[in-house]
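User: I need a structural model of SDR family NAD(P)-dependent oxidoreductase from Erythrobacter aureus for a docking pre-check later this week. Nothing fancy, just the predicted structure tokens so I can convert them on my end. Input:
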Amino acid sequence: MTDAFGLEGRTIIVTGGAQGVGRALAEFGLARGANIALVDINAEALEQARDEIDSPNLACFASNVAVESEVDELVAGTIDRFGDLDGLINNAGVIRAALAHEMSLETWQKVIDVNLTGAFLCLRAVGRALIEKAQRGVQSPGRIVNISSDAGRRGTIGQINYGAAKSGVLGLTMSAAREWARHGITVNSICYGVVETPMTETIRNERFRERYLAQIPLGRFADPDEVSPATWFFLTDAASYVTGQHLSVDGGFHIAT
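Assistant: Understood. Predicted structure tokens for SDR family NAD(P)-dependent oxidoreductase:
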């Protein structure tokens, strides 16, 4: 396949990559010659993904992104495996639904730990490696894409923890973009709507589906393969002058009234 994205030989970490959107993102990069470090806490699903993808450009790490030491180890392991690191797709996330007045602290904290603190830990560890490259005079700038959500831009019912975490990811993106621009590192975010994945099956009951679909101008949920090209754009040289931005890939949901 012709690499119109310019990804040949680039090494990218994809978190939450064993299934759903994360796996689609990883397969998109692999098909275009990128080296992918696939990260997931679910070791069984990760092993299945490795067997099914079966690529020499794939390395798998059964890691919890909410644990600092495990994140540092996976970044070091990626560099050891491929000899370099060029970027990150910060995709790992969980959903624990409850109305705000009924939500337990445990339910709140679980989502914040993975979706926000985990995103920070991965961004920080990868950022350190990319800054070190820049300080050595390496000309290939680093690229980081944080996966947010329209829940972080518009709010959401029944997932105040998820909305708060994803809103925090937007702030994380803008702040890191400001801090690291002097090193040539770009940091952007993608705001997905509802994507047809195992994670979102738990919230796609018939009532929710009808209500949500009525707010999407394109009238349907996304397939994981549809969100990959826009996400990977931010990791290409075509996006070399784009940083601190949030792109909604949601069928127009964010503009609906």
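Before docking, keep this in mind: The two ends are 41 Å apart (CA to CA).
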